[in-house]
Amino acid sequence: MNRDVEETSDLASSVDSSEGVVFCPAFSGLQIVVKEEWIAMAILRLIEMEKCVVEGAGASGLAAILSGQCDELVGKRVVLPLCGGNIDTTILGRCIERGLAADGRLVKFSVNLSDRPGGIAELCTILASVGVSIKDVMHERAWVTRDVFSVKVKVMCETRDLEHVRILQDVLHQNYGIVHFGDIPTPELYQKEDSEED
Q1: Residue span of the signal peptide, if any (predicted)?
Q2: pTM, rounded to two decimals
């Protein structure tokens, strides 16, 4: 069955009061709301697996599938048109970082350490033994409520996957007790948020 595809003004358009979600109309009538994190993860997946660079609108179809909202497509052959390679390099960098965070491969945590010589070195040795790559370290001394020999360290690091994050969490809790991790977004977390909003 050959059918002409009607011309449309936008592949994706913002929804008022959506807090960063994108509405993606499809030719089949299927309409899905996709969060920014899923679009960033889709852009990352396309770069890593398909060696394609597309803007958010071009990755929104894959984002909808990655979000797990397309049950009616399970078991079917699906074609996703990839379009719009017009993405600014600064935005692309942000999308890659956000995609890594959404995929559990970029995590942040904070922990109180001894501010004496060797405190940071010990933490770095532990992180190296787990196999994570440190991207950023920030020291916070002025607002630490413990003694003056303590420092709060905020670390951003790269991991392989969510299982690697769990290992990192276990090792840090064993060595330091109290460790505060930032949100570790997972597909289950997003789906839980969606059901709570209903």
Answers
A1: none
A2: 0.69
